[in-house]
C-alpha cells in the first residue's frame, strides 16, 4: 500500500543505480528516512499540515486524497526515497516534477484568501511540519535516535531538498526548526476541511478489516505526538497519562513489528 505495485522496481532503481547522490551514506537523513518510525511521523505530519487553512485548501481542492489515498501516499513515499537515497539526477527530476505540479495548484480558500502551492511561505510550512514530525517520531520510536548534532544535521540535510522545492530560507538546526513552528502558530486555525481530513485519516481510511486494528494503533500513536495546541482545532483528544504509557508502548510494539517486517523483506 505504501510502496505501490512498482515498489520493488522503484527500490532497485533508487538504490542500485550507480552515480552521485545528494546525501552520503552516513548522513542523518538516510537514517531517519530509512526507519520504520516514518510511518507514524508521516501521519502526524499530515495532521499538522492540515491546520494551515491555505495549505489545506490546496489539498482539499486539488488532491484526490479520499478517492486515491494510497496512490498519493505512494507518490509521496517515492519522492522521499528518490531525494534521500536516489541518484542526484533522479532526485532533481523528482523535484522538477513536483514544482511543475505546484505551479498549477492555485485557487481561493473558503475565507476568501488566494493561495498558490508554489508560494514559498506555504512550502515552508509543509516542509517544517514534515521535518518536525519525522524527527520527533524518530527520536521516540526510531531504532537509533540521534544526538543533538545528529538532529541539527538532519534538519540541515532536509533543507537541501526544501530549497530545491522553492523554500527560501529553510531552518538549518533543530532550534531554528522549533522557532519556525512557533512563528507559524498564529496562522493555524480550525477549518471544516482540516477536521474532515483528520476524520478520514484517523477513523475512515479505506482499509481491509484485518488492517484496521494495527492502523488504529498507528493513528493513536501519531495523535499522541501532536502538541495540545494542534489537537484542539482538529477536535482530537488529549490524554497525557494514557499517551505516555499504553499508547507509547503500543506504538513501540507496532513500529518494531513494521521494522522487523521491512528487514525481512
From TrEMBL:
InterPro entries: MPAB/Lcp_cat_dom. It holds the Pfam family MPAB_Lcp_cat. GO terms for molecular function: oxidoreductase activity. Residues 30-254 form the ER-bound oxygenase mpaB/mpaB'/Rubber oxygenase catalytic domain. This is DUF2236 domain-containing protein. It comes from Mycolicibacterium hodleri.
Amino acid at each position: 500500500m505504501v510502496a505501490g505495485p512498482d515498489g520493488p522496481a522503484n527500490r532497485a532503481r533508487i538504490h542500485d543505480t550507480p552515480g552521485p547522490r545528494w546525501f552520503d551514506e552516513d548522513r542523518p537523513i538516510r537514517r531517519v528516512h530509512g526507519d520504520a518510525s516514518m510511518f507514524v511521523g508521516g501521519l502526524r505530519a499530515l495532521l499538522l499540515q492540515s491546520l494551515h487553512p491555505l495549505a489545506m485548501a490546496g489539498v482539499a481542492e486539488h488532491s484526490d486524497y479520499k478517492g486515491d489515498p494510497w496512490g498519493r501516499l505512494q507518490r509521496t513515499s517515492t519522492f522521499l526515497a528518490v531525494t534521500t537515497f536516489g541518484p542526484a539526477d533522479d532526485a532533481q527530476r523528482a523535484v522538477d516534477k513536483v514544482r511543475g505540479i505546484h505551479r498549477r495548484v492555485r485557487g481561493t480558500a473558503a475565507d476568501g484568501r488566494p493561495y498558490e502551492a508554489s508560494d514559498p511561505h506555504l512550502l515552508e510550512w509543509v516542509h517544517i511540519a514534515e521535518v518536525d514530525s519525522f524527527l520527533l517520531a524518530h527520536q521516540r520510536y526510531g531504532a537509533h535516535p540521534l544526538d543533538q548534532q545528529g538532529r541539527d544535521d538532519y534538519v540541515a540535510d532536509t533543507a537541501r531538498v526544501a530549497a530545491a522545492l522553492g523554500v527560501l530560507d529553510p531552518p538549518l538546526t533543530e532550534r531554528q526548526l522549533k522557532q519556525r513552528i512557533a512563528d507559524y502558530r498564529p496562522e493555524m486555525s480550525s477549518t471544516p476541511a482540516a477536521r474532515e481530513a483528520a476524520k478520514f485519516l484517523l477513523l475512515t481510511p479505506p482499509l481491509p478489516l484485518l488492517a484496521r486494528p494495527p492502523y488504529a494503533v498507528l493513528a493513536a500513536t501519531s495523535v499522541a505526538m501532536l502538541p495540545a495546541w494542534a489537537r484542539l482545532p482538529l477536535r482530537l483528544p488529549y490524554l497525557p497519562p494514557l499517551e505516555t504509557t499504553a499508547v507509547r508502548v503500543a506504538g513501540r510494539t507496532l513500529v518494531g513489528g513494521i521494522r522487523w517486517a521491512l528487514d525481512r523483506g
